[in-house]
Design a protein that fits this description.
- The protein has about 100 residues and is mainly alpha-helical.
- It has 3 helices and no strands.
- α2 (about 40-65) packs antiparallel against α3.
- The protein starts with 7 loop residues before the first helix and ends in an 8-residue tail after the last helix.
Amino acid sequence: MVPYYDRTSLVAVTTHTVLENLIFGCLLVFFIQWVFLGDLRSAIIVGVNIPFALFFAIILLVLQGEDANLLSVGAVDFGIIVDSAVIVVENIFRNFQLQRHERRS
């Protein structure tokens, strides 16, 4: 039996592209967060959030039986979860820079 339409190379290239973009995205977000906040710990927290968010998004798509296309996974990962992580970490960092009596509880 000879396959008529072999997608092996397409899947390999797509997987490689996703991993490359994931690593590049993690490093880019990490360095930008580190440069603007100047705090290594905050940058690491946000940078580590990206692979976990992508993994969680893929797990939920598989559990629901949905197709995991790159656009939907990228939108969920970088568009929603990572932006929220950046905002929360920056707010926490800002609150820790304030005096104790100026902090919000």
